Known about the structure:
The chain is mainly alpha-helical. Helices cover 75% and strands 0% of the residues. Among the domains are: 151 residues, no CATH class; 85 residues, no CATH class; 102 residues, Alpha Horseshoe (Serine Threonine Protein Phosphatase 5, Tetratricopeptide repeat).
Amino acid sequence: xxxxxxxxxxxxxxxxxxxxxxxxxxxxxxxxxxxxxxxxxxxxxxxxxxxxxxxxxxxxxxxxxxxxxxxxxxxxxxxxxxxxxxxxxxxxxxxxxxxxxxxxxxxxxxxxxxxxxxxxxxxxxxxxxxxxxxxxxxxxxxxxxxxxxxxxxxxxxxxxxxxxxxxxxxxxxxxxxxxxxxxxxxxxxxxxxxxxxxxxxxxxxxxxxxxxxxxxxxxxxxxxxxxxxxxxxxxxxxxxxxxxxxxxxxxxxxxxxxxxxxxxxxxxxxxxxxxxxxxxxxxxxxxxxxxxxxxxxxxxxxxxxxxxxxxxxxxxxxxxxxxxxxxxxxxxxxxxxxxxxxxxxxxxxxxxxxxxxxxxxxxxxxxxxxxxxxxxxxxxxxxxxxxxxxxxxxxxxxxxxxxxxxxxxxxxxxxxxxxxxxxxxxxxxxxxxxxxxxxxxxxxxxxxxxxxxxxxxxxxxxxxxxxxxxxxxxxxxxxxxxxx
Length: 484
């Protein structure tokens, strides 16, 4: 059968009456042309022509997004098309595709073109239906359209492949909440809490979702005449507030309501846990200064200095200063005022000092943290304190993860200190370690050449630069050195 037989599809013909998104529409409600396309899709699925089946089902769903039976067949086709197995390569590619597609989705949301946006979500699913990125792309578009049931379908299909992915499960629990499936929401958060028992926020969410589950039971009681409607409405409002609390999907207005509600709660019950939740809410709202204040208040009330909380205080203050600095630099650049530009440099130095203080605190608490040592050493070099940076780089070089980068930085520090023989030794270690001409080997050859020039060993230096030139003519200023 040729495609022309079903090319004429009335995609504007959508069911107009109010449809409960949880149940959707029956295939019997499709138009004649849509039923014809469905038949072709079913035939393709039966013959294992999965890409063609995907194409047919997507055509129908663009105009009938609430036909859940067809979406289930579409997801079955997606899954069979990739062999029903996850793949690391596909998952990486799916993540890249989803990031690009989401930009287009956001434009479509603003234009109220939700069906088109969901179709883009299904396109992501066709790349890898088992990947978290694909699933969330479809789910977010479905949520924007007000169809959380479609988001639920996507999550439940991908669940067997992501049953220990906390980000995936957290979003799925949220979707269950939006579908008024409190017990499933509760079960999902209980699963997350079992995966990360050391994180109190999941226990909090278990309690919150328990309130949602209780609310669902309340509506059942109401239908039986066992409960007053106004009492149940109050329960529902409270549960909805609890459901939104701490959730990354909340809107700016929703977060502010939660902040206001939590401040009222704190006025009545001032506990360490409530103060920390207050700080978490400010952090989610990106109100960095207030978040830092409340993390400090958390430590004050607990009478002990919790290192994790202290690191959060540093993090919030750093983020706040970064925002202020970026705004100040923008203002200075627009005005061209030399005094403002000078002040921007001072503020930049203040930010570096705060970051250094944060790293020093972490190293004091955990001397074996090579990540913090490396971060501190990089900042010390940035402000010209190579002597202070060297011991940290030397210690970090023992870690295979940072070995090459640390050697490179040690060599550069010696080069800046004009200790050329010592600098050469570090770069030669890197060159010996590297079999292929990658960025790190080119960097080591380049700085070795600079050392040799400083030692008046010009011929040896040019040999280094020529070796880079043959591999990458555009590296640093090698072309200028060779041709100049």
